[in-house]
Description:
The complex is a heterodimer.
Chain A: H1 11-19, H2 24-34, H3 36-43, E1 61-67, H4 73-76, E2 77-78, H5 83-88, E3 107-108, H6 116-120, E4 124-131, H7 139-148, H8 159-165, E5 175-178, E6 194-196, H9 210-224, H10 229-244, H11 246-249, H12 266-280, E7 286-291, H13 307-326, E8 333-338, E9 359-365, E10 373-374, E11 392-393, H14 394-404, H15 410-413
Parallel strand pairs in A: 1-7, 1-8, 4-10, 4-11, 5-6, 5-7
Antiparallel strand pairs in A: 2-3, 4-9, 8-9
Chain B: H1 18-33, H2 41-50, E1 56-57, E2 65-66, E3 111-112, E4 115-116, H3 118-127, H4 133-140, H5 145-152, H6 161-164, H7 177-186, H8 190-208, H9 212-224, H10 238-248, H11 253-261, H12 264-269, H13 283-292, H14 301-311, E5 314-316, E6 324-326, E7 336-338, E8 341-343, H15 351-363, H16 365-379, H17 386-398, H18 404-412, H19 414-417, H20 427-438, E9 441-442, H21 451-461, H22 485-499, E10 508-509, E11 525-526, H23 527-539, H24 545-555, E12 562-563, H25 568-572, H26 574-582, H27 585-588
Antiparallel strand pairs in B: 1-2, 3-4, 5-6, 7-8, 9-10, 11-12
Helix pairs in contact in B: 1-17, 7-8, 8-20, 8-21, 10-11, 11-15, 13-14, 16-17, 17-18, 20-22, 22-26, 23-24, 23-26, 24-26
Organism (chain B): Nocardioides anomalus
Protein name (chain B): DUF1800 domain-containing protein
InterPro entries (chain B): DUF1800, TAT_signal
Amino acid sequence: MEIPTPTEGHSCCEEFARASGATRRGFLRGVGALGGAAAVTAVHGTAFTETAYAAAPVDRVLVVLSMRGACDGLSLVVPHGDPTYYLARPGIAVPKDRLLGADSFFGLHPALAPLMPWWTAGQMAAVHATGLPAPNRSHFSAMEELEDADPGSSARVGWLNRLVGRNGTGSPIEAIQFGGGVPVTALAGPEPVLVADDVDSVSLSGYWDAGSEAKRRSSLNRLWTGVPGPLGAGARNAFAVVDDFAPVRGSSPTPAGGATYPRYSDLGAALAAAARTIRADVGAEIITVDHGSWDHHTWIGSPDSGNLRTMADEFAACLAAFLTDLGTLASKVTIVTVSEFGRRVKENASQGLDHGYGNVMFLLGAGVRGGRYYGTWPGLQNTVDADLLVTTDYRSVLAEVVTQRFGASSAAVFPGFSPTSVGVVQPG
Amino acid sequence: MTPLSTLPPAPTQEQQSRRAVGRALAGGLAALAVAPALAGGVAQAAEAKKAPRKWHRCKVHKKHTCWHATTCKHRKHKPPKDDGGKDPKGPDDPGTPPPPQVPGSYDGPAVVDGLPTALALHVGSRFTYGVTPALVAEMAAYPSLQAWIDAQLQPAALPDPAGDALEGWWPALSWDAPRMWAEEQARNGAAWEAMSDYQRWCLLRRITSRRQLFEAVTELFEDHLHVPVHDDGVFGFRVDYGRTIRAHALGRFDDMLVATTTHPAMGISLDNATSTKKAPNENLGRELLELHTVGRGHYTEDDVKASARILTGYRVTTWSTWRVYYDPASHWTGPVTVMGFSDQNAAADGRPVTEAYLRYLAHHRGTAERLARKLAVRFVSDDPSPALVQHLADVYQQAQTAIVPVLRALLESEEFRGSAGLKVRTPSDDIVATWRALAVQPSAPGTDDAAANAILWQTVALGQAPFDWARPDGQPQDGAAWSSVSRVLASFDSHYSMCGGWWPKGSLTYRPLASWVPLSGTDTMRFDALVEHLSRQLLSRSASARLQEACGLATGLSASTKISLKSDLVKWNMPTLLTTVLDNPEHMTR
């Protein structure tokens, strides 16, 4: 017999599950729950009870896009009606006549052009001067604070973990992070989640036919059952999710609707994986993706070139491809962007911007009352350390999404916080 | 900081070993660590001076001894009653029993009957990139485990032919900045590849170098003072930056901080290289405080501004000549104050004030605690006790920021001895440890397929290429960060792929699969004896019952099955058996 190659496939897994009379998803869970000697029995086809339930298909999906590194909201959504903006940024301001979708006060950076079809169709909105309740200029601590979203508590549980926990079936497939490798704070907590680099990485190797697969799985279960610590949990999550994810792996990797994601873009790859997952309808309700770094201390640049333009181009092209890829499925997907803080009003010596405070949030897709700008404008100051002040707590925006779209309790997801109405998301 | 004079009296002659002092320090400082509201080192020291030197031992936390007669919380602890009364929770005891101390002695031999003692295995798992039969043989050549540690702490005196042999493998590592730029302009992507080569060189050093502890400590500081290898424009200086950290990794942190903060790679990465006095760029000034030294909570926004002003003047002419120079005309002058540091800063040449400022930061209590915690998280556990962190911070300050004394104190702590197996092996460490365990032999890389090059794609597939963390805070060191579903599955995949000898394949010699079976001719052995043999070879320990069962499940063989070189197992299923040993928590944790 030839030595099997490691690249051989996963398709036999389903075949084996059918042959053994077990459901695909019940198979591994049963083994995992029983373990040891019992597992040997199980893999030889004895009936067993399914111990956990896979996620059910969902009709609402939340995609959270984190613009890591603190993007400059004043460049992305320009307050052209505030004269201080131009005084403070002689080298990097975006001229009014270059803005897109402008109203009497705000306008979008020209790099967001690919998203204009959704803006004009009323499916994209911006909320300005949002942020944390108090300034926090540390990237790392501000991200923690923003994603934890529970200032009174020392428990490390992120807001998305609380959201998925409200009615969670305990399946890790309900909340997925694509890309990044390291779980983000927003997902941290007791509910199991899936953190994967891409679709294909959610697969088990090391077997070449149904018999060897069964042996492989039972031995891995023996190795990891009862192992304490995060890696034990990660391994058991992996065993639980690898079958549930088979429909996604089996789906076409070609984006739908002629969508083209930018090449070599981590954000594009993550959103393409997200679209594929949503299309396969395996029960993923929350998907997070990261886009960074927006930490532009130098050379914000002109409207046509520079660090910000490069990032904004990628951001817009990826989101436009994602919405195109989703097609009619976009009617169940709401996208919201967050960034840990905004940047200073005044440019620095390097035509860049140092760490500031208030920022913009974008919302796209289902339920968004789009084509306009939200928020209360605080007015800008032109001093060396002036910030865009925060007039809308970012949790008010997120709370509107989770209550209006997901029927969640704001108090459960954002403990101790009383949201104010923003009006950017409609019920339903 | 706590002066030495307030520490417990010296032990009696027969107790006088480094470890005894270490324990006394740890015990005594536990009390300091819980002083009300952490009122600051000075206040604690003063309090310690006033308190009568009367020792007590906590009746609950038996390891706790100190001389705080009135303020120690342990004074109130009563032993638990037999009727199951609640165990009072001490500040350094969250209620769960401490893990067992690994048996073994530093002063005794590291290896007994061919296997490392539990302590030697633990020390090896933490301070090398994987305990192998070769390492065990090396440890056995020293009179004691301590002697091996002492040798590792003086890497310059350790001949390292295997590590040295790597020097010529990647020519780009010797390019200076102008050469790098010329190569990049001649061929787009050359600089990116040069950085990839640097990552590969680091990985191969971790696999082959005899100076294992040095490599591990270097990695920690290169992550701490992180300059992402693919950050814009750093390529011309990044290799030298890594060598700069190597030069100080077992030296003093104050020297290291001066050398790295003023290094062009750091200046480019965090924008100080383009900062001017007119509008100083705050990026490095802030991260120096937040990430490299004292951490949040010690400084204000005004301190950040002053920090950035002090650092102005270190310039690099980027994207043209790559000239590195100090520009007095760019240096902000005028009085500066950052926390407790003040200077008139009147001279246009700001280098002396910069160095004084950096040394002030390096010696600061906040820096001591941050580094102490970082070392403890890398080498002890994800959540080291405040007492251990305080103790290591004390040692660091008393040693004038020297790193070796801190490592010694860490090794001597009971907490270290109680932490075996608690750390998750990071993905890149998993790859490195897998190469070491399988005893593969790479040769100089000629093509991209060569294993010494392909190893980088192995770490990319697991989500953690060296020094490629995009943010300036450096990659996380805790287990939760490296336990994602895709990491676990990718680890299994890489183990299997290497156990079969399938990939990486080029310029790499795998052991013949049959060589893992210690048989010749028509001899036979029981299957469980083979598993025991493999566990000793790959994991340097006796096979656990769990591993025995898992190997049985993976192969369908029973413990008593007779194995010969003609068995089906040996002929075609060895990859499955080997990967089962490596997919084991004992290989994926350390």
